[in-house]
Every structure is written in C-alpha cells, then in structure tokens.
C-alpha cells in the first residue's frame, strides 16, 4: 500500500537532491523503468504498472547516451508527478513500481554534494 505526498517544500527539495546524488547505474535503471512502464489499462501508470522487458533493455542502452543531469531531471519530474510514498510518508517512490525509494530527508551523499 502507498500514500500520496503531503510533505513540506523542503522535503520535496530533499528528494530531488537525493535523486541527483544517486550513482549512474541507479539513474539509468530508474529512467529506463519509467520509459518502459506499461500503464494499467483503466487506471494508468499509477496503478499496478507492468514492465515491458524488451523495451527496458533497449532503454538501458539508450540511457548510456544521456548525462546524469538529464536522467536525474527526468526521474525527478516523474517522481513529482507520481507523488507516491511509503505508508507513513517516509520514502518517495522514484519509480512506477515502488522498488526505488528515497527518503524525504537528505541522504549523506546528497548532503555531501550540497557542501
């Protein structure tokens, strides 16, 4: 089960910074998941999306041509539109499946980049 976002502006900025601080492999994987998600026929992407595996494999290759900033910005845009988090509101869903989660507090990696 998941919740809709209801956090402060600072919490959303933290998620964005946390996305930007992720390793390249994570960014490529999540970007590719968003690209290859098959929406539920009647409820859209935000309800039990499935993954088109051949498309995912192609998108992983395509992601190699994109820089980290482009990948992170796209992921943030989709994450913000999706506005879904874990029960209790502790972690934002950064992919359509809820398997890539980031906290609404700054991670140590994101905090180090901000210094």
Separate helix tally? 5
Number of domains: 1
**Outline, from the CA principal axes?**
flat
- What is the H/E string? EHHEEHHEEEH
**Care to count the β-strands?**
6
Q: What topology, given as strand order, has the largest sheet? A: 1-4
- Give the biggest sheet: 2 strands, antiparallel
Rg calc: 14 Å
Please indicate the percent range of residues in DSSP E strands (runs of 2 or more).
5-15%
Query: Alpha-carbon distance between the termini?
Result: 36 Å
Low-confidence stretches: none
Q: Which structural class is indicated by helix and strand composition?
A: alpha+beta
pLDDT averaged residue by residue = 88
Care to describe what's here?
The chain has 115 residues and is of the alpha+beta class. It has one domain. The chain is built from 5 helices and 6 strands. The strands form 3 sheets. The chain has a two-stranded antiparallel sheet with strand order 1-4. Strands 2-3 form a two-stranded antiparallel sheet. It has a two-stranded antiparallel sheet with strand order 5-6. The longest helix has 15 residues, at 68-82. The model has no long low-confidence stretch (mean pLDDT 88).
